[in-house]
Amino acid sequence: FSVLLFFGLKTKTGICLLQDGNQEPFKVRLHLARDILMIQEQDVTCVSGEPFYSGINGINVRKCRHEEVVQVLRNAGEEVTLTVSFLKRAPAFLKLSLNEDCACAPSDQSSGTSSPLCDSGLHLNYHPNNTDTLSCSSWPASPGLRWEKRWCDLRLIPLLHSRFSQYLPGTDLSRQNAFQVTAVDGVCSGVIQCLSAEDCGEWLQAIATNISSLTKHNIVYMGWCEMREQDPLQDRVYSPAFLALRGSCLYKFLAPPVTTWDWTRAEKTFSVYEIMCKILKDSDLLDRRRHCFTVQSESGEDLYFSVELDSDLAQWERAFQTATFLEVERIQCKTYACVLEGHLMGLTIDFSTGFICFDAATKAVLWRYKFSQLKGSSDDGKSKIKFLFQNPDTKQIEAKELEFSNLFAVLHCIHSFFAAKVACLDPLFLSSQAAASAASSSGVPSKAKYMT
């Protein structure tokens, strides 16, 4: 096999086994290009001269391509009548006897060792009114035919928005060294069986790289995953879900968005700074599927997802961190309505100054603290949050309790702002953001001011 790396894109060619439905596995060649996966089978094809058949069951195929003729043959039924025009070399190809003195005996280029017509069990008929005998002098002369075994396209899988999986559909049962790829229109590759676990891993990584590279540059993340159903009585424990991080939102689709209108029809939409993502350790997994994460929504609902590869999980984690950082950097502050001792208040989380609590009616500020002064917090899981701030002068801990109608959204927003503050101090994150900014076409400098 061969692998080429070009600006992050991979091309790869290799031999695998393909199991399609209930058929026995057979050898195929996979060729991975930038935007398509080609599955090819070996077939005998005429590479020079004129095809010896011109009609199949009355259908004129003289001007058809080889693939079209093969399709006609496959759909012709058990009894097939071939209308023959030039049969000079056909006796050798069809394993028929031929007069040894005949000058048109088969050459080395046309050995009679294999025949797709005979191998497939097709029956060659002749016209009942034809009184010619099987002799090469009975047919007009024709240019010599040359047949070769070549790899012909069996199936083409476009990679844009496609998905792949090592698991049996809807389960946590993993295939051994095997996977299947499904295009956005539902066309499936069949089960591709690799020669080894290492070979399977290389194919999956190469396919994942090319699928990811086809994502639009103004979208932080787009890709397929499997979502665990919350109802344990479902026959299918997992179902495909398409996630996208774009702008301020995380989108969950049943199918990839192709048009602008599709973005308005997402199954679910979440504000990226009001949700929480958790990468699960092995001890936190619910079943045999690995590479899982959860997303807790602003309402407290937990969504459980699984991806195929460790690199997919790392890519999602980086993308979510980036999307959160960019959105916090964009909005700079967020205000939530709250209640303090029966009075309506407002709590502003400001990226530059920290926490500000003010009276909703008079706008008078009651207290303010920096992010660095928050030493702890707790909540009752329903509506109340207790903040523990350190007074900068007395060094004493001051407790502030507020009540919110959207508790989880507030908690997640605070976490997002803290994560963005930490990212500002991470040199690796900052360097990656600088590289991404340099590669983008906008070139707009950031206006954020980073303060602790």
Q: Can you give me a brief rundown of this structure?
A:
The protein has 7 helices and 27 strands. It has 452 residues and is an alpha+beta fold.
Explain what this protein looks like in three dimensions.
Helix 5 packs across helix 6. The strands form six sheets. Strands 1, 2, 3, 4, 10, 11, 12 and 13 form an eight-stranded antiparallel sheet that branches. This protein has a seven-stranded antiparallel sheet with strand order 17-16-15-14-20-19-18. The chain is elongated, with a radius of gyration of 33 Å. It is 19% helix and 35% strand. It has 452 residues and is of the alpha+beta class. It contains seven helices and 27 strands.
Cα radius of gyration in angstroms: 33 Å
Distance between the termini: 54 Å
Structural class label: alpha+beta
| Overall body shape | elongated
Mean pLDDT: 79
Q: Low-confidence parts, pLDDT < 50 over ≥5 residues?
A: 1-7, 86-142, 439-452
Count every helix, treating DSSP H or I runs of 4 or more residues as helices.
7
Query: Could you give the count of β-strands?
Result: 27
Strand content: 35-45%
Query: Main β-sheet, in a few words?
Result: 8 strands, antiparallel
- Estimated helix fraction: 10-25%
